[in-house]
């Protein structure tokens, strides 16, 4: 009952948030300097030519009227047409979403694995040089932003020891039998390990660049939580029962220590998706982030709106899932 | 951790396996040419929307589509799909002869109907062609055999130059009408040297050579153009051997790599760097303008900031343009600048103050150049405050005639005609001009419709001289485009700045 109430409440706040984002985005991008018509104004255009071009893209109407037309379309699933690509916005953003989701999930998995291993190793070897080394590595990982990690990785594994691809999502010469844009997932389902390997070799560096800072955060927080948990009575009891250190950490302490990390991972995952904007650009990865930068450069207003709203849906969706997971995992909420 | 022999072998094997994941070797014998391009391609229709007027995308379009008239690497026109073109005696009609024996990529014959339809379509504002008003000067197209004639609604001496400039592309009438705009976007066809095989938006386009190309089959059967907007990633692409050719990287990187494993070509292109002067505030004082122009040491800026990759210019015409006049010069003379400022009551202790706007990173060393100029100005008694803005804001401010008294910009003019450089940049009523002086408007006005070509070019030279003498704008330099490539490729640069794969050959 408590869970259902939490879910419904979050659903309502999510809807309100999305409406707010839509309104703010629509008006803000029209207020900031630079409009798409000025961007494509040809030499020698007269006032009449400018007016005709403005009307062609529906930008001649008052802002509230433009918003109502756009909002009416959105309610019917029509997010408008991109000015630069002349394609329906919804199709464009949904077409790119799988690439960004796969990259983000891969980065998240890498971050959890790297951060988790670092935290567990640091806890297991606490007070030794290993823990010190892990702390130093964590500090280094945190102090360098993801795009700089991207450049470092490009230099290391793209140029010096060229083992991974620097750009793109898949080798252009490969024939892709996919019916969805979830290339990584579909290649596994179809047992096309040759394609899977190619896709992974394209995704490894951008995913790692995104994962490194998050892995450091996870590693630090989880290690701290584990350390605190290791002093609790039930852990001491487990030790007195004769369980080994590995068992105590993995089977007794981890379950409780992981809760704050889980919340953090949820919040950080949204930041990680945000980070894809720069990383996708750097690695010429064909996701939403890369498309977002082009849309902003070209002042493609309908496309910017579509991408921002989709990002907002993802962010609020992830937060909703994390809240529900937290509620489900937290005994105090679960049994309330 | 102990590193055993077995674990070392495992790591080595993993490295070899990873290295074998389809990474291209650094071009010994290039089968498939891979180009790391600096922009993405948003749309395939070269006549519609913002992409149609984006000069950097034109090289991609020209790989697939032909323009009405061919433009050679030195910017000069040559017979293309049109083999002959011209006006009648009284300039009331145009006549174009269409090349025979050309086929579209789907095998259907290219005809004069395609040319007439493309011109009519380009003039139709409803299609979204941003330059429709230029094409609107022709009407009543008549096709007879392989000739197309049309009435001239308003004489424009540059109309045939537009036929190898922005939106001047021939599209397939029958195919387009059959598949519509959406179908064309999904599977575009042209008569150009390459055919689109695969296109992933924001990622790459894979092209196949057009064996029936009227200009001869290109050297490389398959070309993949990867869209790599980040300069560091582009350099890494060619350095690692993932790509064979790339362009537009920092000059330092170009110098570092061109003598090593890679070859390079750096040639002047039709883009120039300049400072717009708006006729407001202190810029109404000719002494201030002239001082600002004389105080800029262009050659030193080129040498120090651009590693020498640039050509000093004193008018808005480069040596390749039709109205270039080498006799028009503006000397670097800080002494003269001090004198001029003193005449207006300014000095180092009492400097004239104004704002200069610039982009940062939009063009190579744009912000750094403005910083250097502001430093030079300070020495003679000009205190300029730098405002950095996005290029989109520049366009908006310029269209509204609201630029600061000085604003750095780069102007592209790949047809080399003075109307599309000096004309549009300096003619007051043009939305691209911020100088509204009546004297200049009076000089330029009659040149728009001047039918005598020699007189027209002479007129523009006179305009350029007047502009230089009165310092109505500060031209700075002609850009040089750096191209890095694998030793296995010979790259022919195009002065328009377009990187064209069909001009590349095996070494």
UniProtKB/TrEMBL annotation, chain A:
GO terms for biological process: transmembrane transport. It is a multi-pass membrane protein. Pfam families: BPD_transp_1 (PF00528), BPD_transp_1_N (PF19300). Keywords: Cell membrane, Membrane, Transmembrane, Transmembrane helix, Transport. InterPro entries: BPD_transp_1_N, MetI-like, MetI-like_sf. Residues 97-326 form the ABC transmembrane type-1 domain. The chain crosses the membrane at residues 7-32, 103-121, 147-167, 199-222, 257-283, 303-329. Its main location: membrane. The keyword Membrane applies. PROSITE patterns: ABC_TM1. The keyword Cell membrane applies. GO terms for cellular component: plasma membrane. It is found in: Cell membrane. Belongs to the binding-protein-dependent transport system permease family. This is ABC transporter permease. It comes from Paragemmobacter straminiformis. The lineage of its organism: Bacteria, Pseudomonadati, Pseudomonadota, Alphaproteobacteria, Rhodobacterales.
UniProtKB/TrEMBL annotation, chain B:
It is found in: Periplasm. Gene3D superfamilies: Dipeptide-binding Protein, Domain 3 (3.10.105.10), Periplasmic binding protein-like II (3.40.190.10). It comes from the Bacteria. Residues 1-29 form the signal peptide. Residues 76-422 form the Solute-binding protein family domain. Keywords: Signal. Pfam families: SBP_bac_5 (PF00496). Transmembrane segments: none annotated. InterPro entries: Peptide/Ni-bd, SBP_5, SBP_5_dom, TAT_signal, TAT_signal_bac_arc. GO terms for cellular component: ATP-binding cassette (ABC) transporter complex; outer membrane-bounded periplasmic space. One of its GO terms (biological process) is peptide transport. NCBIfam families: TAT_signal_seq (TIGR01409). Belongs to the bacterial solute-binding protein 5 family. This is Twin-arginine translocation signal domain-containing protein. It comes from Paragemmobacter straminiformis.
């Amino acid at each position: 009952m408590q869970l259902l109430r939490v879910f419904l409440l979050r659903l309502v706040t999510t809807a309100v948030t999305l409406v707010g984002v839509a309104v703010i985005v629509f008006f803000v991008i029209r207020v900031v300097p630079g409009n798409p018509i000025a961007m494509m104004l040809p030499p020698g255009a007269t006032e009449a030519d400018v007016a005709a071009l403005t009307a062609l893209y529906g930008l001649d109407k008052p802002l509230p009227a433009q918003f109502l037309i756009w909002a009416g379309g959105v309610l019917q699933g029509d997010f408008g047409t991109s000015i630069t690509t002349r394609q329906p916005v919804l199709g464009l953003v949904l077409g790119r979403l799988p690439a960004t989701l796969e990259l983000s999930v891969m980065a998240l998995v890498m971050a959890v694995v790297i951060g988790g291993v670092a935290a567990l190793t640091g806890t297991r070897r606490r007070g030794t040089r290993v823990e010190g080394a892990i702390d130093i590595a964590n500090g280094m990982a945190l102090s360098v932003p993801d795009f700089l990690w991207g450049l470092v990785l490009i230099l290391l594994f793209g140029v010096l020891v060229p083992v991974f691809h620097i750009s793109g999502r898949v080798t252009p010469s490969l024939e892709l039998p996919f019916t969805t844009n979830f290339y990584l997932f579909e290649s596994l389902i179809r047992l096309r390990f040759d394609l899977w390997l190619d896709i992974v070799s394209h995704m490894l560096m951008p995913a790692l660049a995104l994962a490194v800072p998050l892995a450091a955060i996870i590693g630090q927080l989880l290690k701290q939580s584990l350390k605190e948990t290791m002093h609790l009575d039930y852990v001491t009891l487990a030790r007195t029962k004769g369980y080994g250190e590995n068992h105590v950490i993995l089977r007794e302490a981890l379950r409780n220590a992981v809760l704050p990390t889980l919340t953090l991972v949820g919040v950080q995952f949204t930041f990680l998706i945000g980070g894809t904007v720069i990383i996708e650009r750097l690695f010429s990865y064909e996701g939403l982030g890369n498309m977002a930068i082009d849309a902003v450069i070209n002042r493609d207003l309908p496309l910017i709106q579509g991408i921002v709203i989709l990002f907002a849906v993802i962010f609020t969706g992830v937060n909703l899932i994390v809240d529900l997971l937290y509620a489900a995992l937290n005994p105090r909420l679960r049994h309330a | 951790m102990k590193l055993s022999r077995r674990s070392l072998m495992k790591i080595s094997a993993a490295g070899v396996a990873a290295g074998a994941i389809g990474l291209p070797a650094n071009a010994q014998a290039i089968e498939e040419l891979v180009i790391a391009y600096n922009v993405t391609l948003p749309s395939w229709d070269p006549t519609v929307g913002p992409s149609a007027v984006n000069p950097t995308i034109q090289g991609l379009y020209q790989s697939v589509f032909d323009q009405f008239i061919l433009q050679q690497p030195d910017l000069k026109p040559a017979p293309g799909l049109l083999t002959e073109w011209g006006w009648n005696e009284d300039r009331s009609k145009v006549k174009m002869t269409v090349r025979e024996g050309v086929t579209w990529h789907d095998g259907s014959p290219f005809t004069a109907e395609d040319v007439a339809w493309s011109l009519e379509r380009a003039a139709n504002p409803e299609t979204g062609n941003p330059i429709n008003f230029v094409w609107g000067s022709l009407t009543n197209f008549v096709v007879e055999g392989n000739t197309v004639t049309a009435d001239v609604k308003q004489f424009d001496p540059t109309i045939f130059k537009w036929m190898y400039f922005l939106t001047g592309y021939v599209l397939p009438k029958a195919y387009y009408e059959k598949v519509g705009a959406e179908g064309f976007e999904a599977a575009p066809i042209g008569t150009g040297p390459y055919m689109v095989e695969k296109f992933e938006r924001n990622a790459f386009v894979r092209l196949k050579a057009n064996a029936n190309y009227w200009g001869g089959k290109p050297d490389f059967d398959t070309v993949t153009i990867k869209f790599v907007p980040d300069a560091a990633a582009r350099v890494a692409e060619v350095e690692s051997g993932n790509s064979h050719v790339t362009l537009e990287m920092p000059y330092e990187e170009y110098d570092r790599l061109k003598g090593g494993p890679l070859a390079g070509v750096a040639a002047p292109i039709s883009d120039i760097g300049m400072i717009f002067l708006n006729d407001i505030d202190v810029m109404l004082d000719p002494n201030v303008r002239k001082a600002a122009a004389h105080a800029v040491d262009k050659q030193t800026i080129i040498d120090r900031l651009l590693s020498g990759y640039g050509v000093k210019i004193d008018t808005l015409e480069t040596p390749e343009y039709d109205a270039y006049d080498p006799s028009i010069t503006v000397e670097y003379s800080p002494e003269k600048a001090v004198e001029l400022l003193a005449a207006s009551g300014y000095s180092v202790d009492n400097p004239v103050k104004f704002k200069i706007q610039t982009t940062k990173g939009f063009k190579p060393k744009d912000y750094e150049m403005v910083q250097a100029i502001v430093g030079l100005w300070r020495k003679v008694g000009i205190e300029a405050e730098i405002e950095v803005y996005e290029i989109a804001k520049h366009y908006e401010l310029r269209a509204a005639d609201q630029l600061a008294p000085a604003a750095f910009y780069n102007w592209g003019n790949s047809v080399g005609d003075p109307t599309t450089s000096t004309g549009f940049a300096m003619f007051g009523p043009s939305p691209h001009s911020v100088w509204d002086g009546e004297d200049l408007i009076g000089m330029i006005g009659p040149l728009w419709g001047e039918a005598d070509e020699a007189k027209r070019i002479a007129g523009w030279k006179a305009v350029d001289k007047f502009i230089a003498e009165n310092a109505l704008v500060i031209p700075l330099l002609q850009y040089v485009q750096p191209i890095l490539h694998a030793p296995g490729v010979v790259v022919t640069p195009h002065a328009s700045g377009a990187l064209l794969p069909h001009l590349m050959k095996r070494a």
